[in-house]
Amino acid sequence: MIQFEQLYKEVLPVLQSKMDEINYYEYDGITLEDIWNFCIKKRWRRKKVEELRLYEIVETIYSVKPSEIVSYFQIQQFRSENWFEDISNHELQELLKSKTVESDK
């Protein structure tokens, strides 16, 4: 059975070409893995690996717009980010408590 890791190795030159295009438009911070993960999680999320043909994979990679990748990862960052991870439970309760006391005034 084919896995995404095997396909990644096959389409690495295509990913590199897309990466060159993205760099040309000065989108910094996007890696080959970011492009690949975007395709897996966004474009192919409802497809099985076995159903994908090589030409479909190449077409998908070339059709990805840099702004789509940036938007997708920004949204993922907002969804997964724990804004209060550096605060203890007690400190969080104190913050919430003080907020409700101030709003009652």
From TrEMBL:
Pfam families: Post_transc_reg
Name assigned to this protein: ComN-like post-transcriptional regulator
Organism: Ureibacillus chungkukjangi
Source organism, top-level taxon: Bacteria
InterPro entries reported for this sequence: Post-transcriptional_regulator
